[in-house]
Amino acid sequence: MRDVAKAAGVSVATVSHVVNDKPGARIGDDARRRVQEAVVELGYRPNALAKTLSQGGSRFIGLVADAIATTPFAGQIIHGAQDEAWKHGYVLLVANTEGNAAVENDAIAMMLEHQVHGILYSTWYHREIVVPDVLQQVDTVLVDCFAADGEFPAVVPDEEQGGRTATEELLAAGHRRIAFINTTTPSPARTGRLAGYRAALEASGIEMDESLVFSAEPQQEGGYRTTPRILESGATAVFCHNDRVAMGLYDGLREAGVRVPEDIAVMGFDNQEVIAAHVRPPLSTVALPHYELGAAGVRVLLGLESDESHRLRIACPAVRRASV
């Protein structure tokens, strides 16, 4: 700033008023022009950290994640948060902790030292968490996770709506005997997607048949192992808990000489594109809205969006391909 003042022939205070566009500052047009030209010529940038310390706040938003930067699709949370933060004049500071508590505490401490506007705390899959005590010191929004007591606002996928949408896609294609392969892992996805499946059937006047609900490990092998029971059930369509289960079901159906979708329709969940877009036929599925989870987290943190329940649910849209 002193260099700019010297080049422009003005005081340091005048430079400060110009670069910060201080309201009410009495600066002549010629002096303002000289300062602006010197700023360009010298490549001057304000010291953001010094400004943060002097003003008691910053244009930084922190994002602390357990593993989402290294998962195949959930890094979209970072992308969505970054785009939304930038739109409102903020920069995202990201720390990927790989679930290491010591790294997490150090990352949050660093963000507090930089006086971040607030912190998004995210997990790579939707679940209930215990919020670190240190986050009591700063405005925090939970993304893709929630606290049981509802003390912190949370942004999560609408699992029940997603399950309902998946089932409605199969109903719209004319299927009435629809099986559901659910996960064995206790989670909001397990209960929510089952509730959505049940609600869609009931809304269509179809009585729930518990024999058509199967439990399987949420991996490719789980879907493969369930194939014989699916074929014995007489189902004409299957809603799978996730795309990996659907991929395993594809393998089992292919071995049995059963065609998708001619003989049986298959619907996935997640829209994990490395799977869904590249199996044959390409898999119709429901997307987890990772990008929008990150973007909505920033909006909630900035007070631009809210929900009375303190848990904002983001819709999971259908992605139609060729398996239904």
TL;DR?
The chain has helices at residues 2-8, 12-19, 29-42, 48-55, 76-87, 101-113, 159-172, 188-203, 220-233, 243-255, 273-276, 290-301; strands at residues 60-65, 91-96, 119-129, 140-147, 154-157, 178-183, 213-216, 237-240, 265-267, 285-286, 311-314, 318-319. With 324 residues, the protein is an alpha/beta fold.
Please give a structural write-up:
By secondary structure, the chain is of the alpha/beta class. The chain has three domains: 45 residues, Orthogonal Bundle (434 Repressor (Amino-terminal Domain)); 126 residues, Rossmann fold (3-Layer(aba) Sandwich); 128 residues, Response regulator (Rossmann fold, 3-Layer(aba) Sandwich), CATH 3.40.50. 42% of the residues lie in helices and 19% in strands. Helix 8 links the parallel strand 6 and strand 7. It starts with a helix and ends in a 5-residue tail after the last strand. Keywords: DNA-binding, Repressor, Transcription, Transcription regulation.
